Amino acid sequence: MNARRPSPRPSTRARPVGGPIEYAQGPIADRPLCVDPALPVPAVYLRTPTWHPLIYRKRIDRVEGGARPGDLVAVYLEPDQLLGYGLYNPRSEFAVRIVRWGTELPDAAFWRERFERAVALRRDFLGLDRVTDAYRLVHAEGDGLPGLVVDRFGETLSAEVFSLGMFQRCRPILDGLAALCGTRHTVVQAGPNTVAQEGFACPPVVSDGAPPRVTIHEFQTRFRVRFEGGHKTGFFCDQRDNRKRLAGFCGGKSVLDLCCYSGGFAIQAKRLGGATEVIGVDLDEEPLQLARENADLNQVRVRFVQADIFPFMRDMLRGGRQFDVVVLDPPKLIRSRAEIDEGTRAHFDMNRLAMQLVKPGGLMLSCTCAGLLPESEFVRLLSAAARQAGPPDPRTAGDERPRHAPRAMQILEKTGAAPDHPVDAMCPEGEYLNAVWMRLV
Prior knowledge:
Blueprint: E1 21-22, E2 43-46, E3 54-56, E4 60-64, E5 72-77, E6 81-88, E7 94-101, H1 108-125, E8 134-139, E9 148-153, E10 156-161, H2 164-168, H3 170-181, E11 185-190, H4 194-198, E12 200-201, E13 205-206, E14 213-218, E15 221-226, H5 240-247, E16 254-258, H6 264-271, E17 277-282, H7 285-297, E18 303-306, H8 309-318, E19 323-328, H9 340-356, E20 358-368, H10 375-386, E21 409-415, E22 434-440
Parallel strand pairs: 1-12, 2-5, 10-11, 16-17, 16-19, 17-18, 19-20
Antiparallel strand pairs: 2-4, 3-7, 5-6, 6-7, 8-9, 9-10, 11-13, 14-15, 20-22, 21-22
Helix pairs in contact: 1-3, 5-6, 8-9, 9-10
């Protein structure tokens, strides 16, 4: 059904307004998925055409119809070409997040089809239920639900919300997904920067009876997932296939897992890969405690060390220690364009040190989840790090930053997130994870 044009009202220019919207602990601030087709829909007019699902505030010419934060709006190109419908938030840099292109209102059939398509990709097309009960069920723009990610962990759906409009509609969305998946519990939390980026804050919201932690399986390896205090939704499903692939290189080898979090790479290297020695290093005690529990759960021996990886790596180098396989999977180091320079330097420094810990002919897997660091730039950074990762020049041994000889680096493969993290072709920045497999000789 076509949208009704908004009632004539003074138009407003798009601009950020107001302070943060505070939500108390308790039920999600519900909004229905479907608007009353008999009522007028507020309108947003764009200066220039776009097919990108995230519409920047600066692209908007004016807003009509008294649109409020979180409203569904009709998106027009001057003078009256209806492009689609999206969720509006004038506080956000992404003032509109498109949920449906075209002239038809998002109705119940549309939302049902959107949920069915997301579930069918994981269960029917990818067949993930055969190998795991933990996977990304909704990947934001990649599944046509911008500003929302949902991971399935057994009987629990864990959602992270980056959009005010999606937050307000999270309950009916999760109800629809749960009905298709047969899950029983939900956990919803706002993304880490929603106050600054979306103007709202909310503590985690959990359904009645939802467990604080669950045990999931991945290629017959078991992991505990803790929701409270965990990173993101509680577990990194995006590295699932990379963990299995790395295990194939680890038979009879020594493995160092830097920034190991709850031990995913380390434990799979030992259990699936048959590594003889595995060390996992992380700065935070809570995920390390979970990593130790995960090792015990699978009856494998992994040494977990709580340490900042920079002094840890320097200590290893001073002791002449090297490993057959080194994994470097740091947390997100670049969250905004203002952090690009500092985050890039951090990536360079940690990779330069990690490369020195790889035995000649050994494997290194280096990852970044900083979507603002393109793959081409990341590869250039790794090449520059390799040029300074060889043996130290004895003539500069006493210097604060001694020079190092270059080290030959062979790139074997470049991978990313598992395929349950699809990318909308019109929103390529959704491809955030870069994983580079290197042989250092």
